[in-house]
Amino acid sequence: MTDGRDKNAPIGVFDSGIGGLTVAREIMRQMPDEDIVYFGDTARVPYGSKSKDTILRFSRQIVHFLRAKQVKAIVIACNTASAWALDPLEQEQDIPVLGVIKAGAFTAAQTTANGRIGVIATRGTIDSGVYEQVLRGLNPGFQIFGKACPLFVPLVEEGLTHDFITEEIARRYVKDLQYKGIDTLILGCTHYPLLRTLLRKVMGEKVALVNPAYETAIELKTLLVEKGLCHDPRSTGEGGALGTPSSYRFYVSDLAAQFQEFANSILPYDVAGTEQIDIEQYGVSH
Ligand code: DGL
User: Fold this and answer.
1) Which residues line ligand 1 (CB under 6 A)?
2) Ligand 1 atom nearest to 45, measured from its CA
3) Spatial distance between the Cα atoms of 254 and 258, rounded to a whole number of angstroms
4) Distance from C-alpha of 187 to C-alpha of 79, rounded to nearest angstrom
5) Atom of ligand 1 nearest to the CA of 100
6) Atom of ligand 1 nearest to the CA of 41
7) Is residue 78 among the annotated active site residues?
8) Which of 8, 53, 105, 243 shows the greatest Cβ crowding within 10 Å of its Cβ?
9) C-alpha to C-alpha distance for 33 and 129, rounded to whole angstroms
10) Residue 3: what pLDDT?
11) pLDDT digit string (tens) for 170-200?
């Protein structure tokens, strides 16, 4: 089938680089029968400091690439790309397109007791105001406090997830949020779930940490069930092997070996291969 509605077609997942693997990992855990085509835009990362127009252009190219792989649904695993590109892409595509922001906002709305919610994310995501918009739509009484944490992404990519330098920076970043008395903190960037232990230590036990990756996988599953698009292993004789590595394909726009090393450190199995492609050759029209 080539129309993207074959239920045994893969799910397309994309991010500016490695961070979206935290979302892919949740999809793998919660939907072990699903095949995944992952694209990490490692040549053009970071997205968090780029403009809306640029992110939309990049995202459209990636969607073209994923459609060429005949995916049945697309998950924008990047918060910044979800903030700037989800609405237009949803309108342009005839397959389901999901972002990570609504799922995170819904969970936060259900979690908070005092209505004071913190959001930490890239500058792009904070500037877009999208978390605030979605949360206020859910409850106009919520008080939302955003904080851009631009140093977190490079610190995670340097492997400093448990380092005292990262902890010190985290303390400075969240100080204002702590003064505001938030009881819920959205980890609004793909990399931040990898700082969960450190953020738990810094924020204390009383502040709930929301990982949008987890909820996004639940939202995806619900959507696939509703649309009758769940992978059916019986129809292909695969027997539904749990997380079979061959059902996952990884593509990047640069530095495939580096990506693979990181992927191996956070995924529950070793990635067999990562292919580098020229994303610029994919058209921007839709
Ligand atoms: N994936 C991005 C996000 O979730 C973080 C990395 C970047 O700035 O590209 O916003």
Assistant:
1) 15-16, 19, 45-48, 78-80, 122, 125, 153, 189-191
2) 9
3) 9
4) 10
5) 4
6) 9
7) yes
8) 105
9) 36
10) 46
11) 999 999 999 999 999 999 999 999 999 999 9
Q: Which of 42, 52, 80 to mutate to test the pocket of ligand 1 (most atoms within 8 A of CB)?
A: 80
Write out the two tokens for 45. Answer: 């990362």
Question: Ligand 1 centroid vs 191 CA: distance in angstroms?
Answer: 7
Of 169 and 231, the one with more pLDDT: 169
Calpha distance 47→72 (Å, rounded): 25
Out of 134, 189, 209, 255, the active site residue is: 189
- Given 31, 63, 71, 78, the catalytic residue: 78
Q: Which of 86, 127, 190, 211 should be mutated for ligand 1, with most atoms under 8 A from CB?
A: 190
- Those residues whose C-beta lies under 8 Å from the C-beta of residue 62, and which sit 6 or more positions away, are 14, 39, 41, 279, 282
Q: What pLDDT score was predicted for residue 157?
A: 86
Q: Which ranges of 69-163 does DSSP label H, i.e. alpha helix?
A: 79-92, 101-111, 123-128, 130-138, 152-157
* Beta-strand relationship, 116-121 and 97-98: unpaired
**Average pLDDT, stretch 233-254?**
68
Q: Can you give the pTM of this predicted structure? A: 0.91
pLDDT digit string, tens, across residues 247-275? 899 999 999 999 999 999 889 888 888 99
- Shortest-distance Cα residue to atom 6 of ligand 1: 46
For residues 223-260, one letter each, b for 16 or more C-beta atoms within 10 angstroms of the residue's C-beta and e for the rest, the string is: ebeeeebbbebeeeebeeeebeeebbbbbbbbbbeebb
Question: Is 189 annotated as catalytic?
Answer: yes
- What the block records as the tokens of 6 is 């074959």
